[in-house]
């Protein structure tokens, strides 16, 4: 039996060698919403088990079944760049409510179908939300949009901002409850410690406003759906001044790009490992799951890692993480989008052979889990 299948089988039987566990390992983590569906509750327990009690990490990508580097229309959900290279899809399927709300009906259909297919095939599905602001019409910082959450937390609806906030959440809830109807991990208001989003560090009222708004969002959603686990994810630093509190977070994630890229000095491999260790320590102290919620070789333009460092996923991500007992306790790592306008963050069918061969080795490593592996593990049981 190949090593990766052996690892998956042992995990399924719960006989992998025990690792140091979080304080809630014995009883299992409890979701912050006590009324979630059994499948949603099981997903949290299995994510906790993968992170804390096995030596495996799930690999994920944003939009793997509806975008690819060629992007000739929208994909057949049985195809992906990852599958073209490895014969398998990612274990974690990333999506974004912005693409299911604000795009044309054809794209909305493609992304919805892709998320449904990923779940049906046993993958975990996670959503972020590049929330378009009311005034600027973009998720980027805008002077008026930066005031919205302050108006929400103070109850000032004189400009209709409070109404807009909850109406926007109703759109998200409709998708979850009607179109999806399965467990998801939701990362709202992510990378809040950066200055690029309207809910970010230039937000009126700063971290205090952010924390109150995040809590209002969670309270509103968990009263209206039973399918959601909530993930909080700052960028390149733990930024605990923005932490909404243990009653509002199931999963603690962090984002960070560029580790191992020789042209990048602000987020090195060493910085990545340190940040993940800090995140795992924080998750342990608070009884949460830890994850590396976004990463990639670079953050813009055409990405040349497949020629500069074709084994980047192994050399600069997997091996340094596994070398740290703490960092290796993350449940998953997620790569960003491959499309004609993004990336490629992973090899694809037309990548150089050295890049594809290196990623096949990454896929074959017994510590990485892809879709076929997690399908055997039955994350929702």
Describe it:
The protein has 381 residues and is α/β, with parallel strands linked by helices. The protein has a single domain, classed as Glycosidases (TIM Barrel, Alpha-Beta Barrel), CATH 3.20.20.80. The chain has 13 helices and nine strands. The chain has helices at residues 3-12, 38-53, 81-86, 97-101, 105-120, 148-154, 161-180, 206-222, 269-286, 305-308, 312-322, 353-364, 371-377, and strands at 57-62, 92-96, 124-128, 184-187, 228-232, 251-255, 289-295, 332-335, 368-369. It has an eight-stranded parallel barrel, surrounded by four helices. α9 links the parallel β6 and β7 (289-295). It is globular and about 60 Å long. The two termini are 25 Å apart. Mean pLDDT is 91; it is low at 1-26.
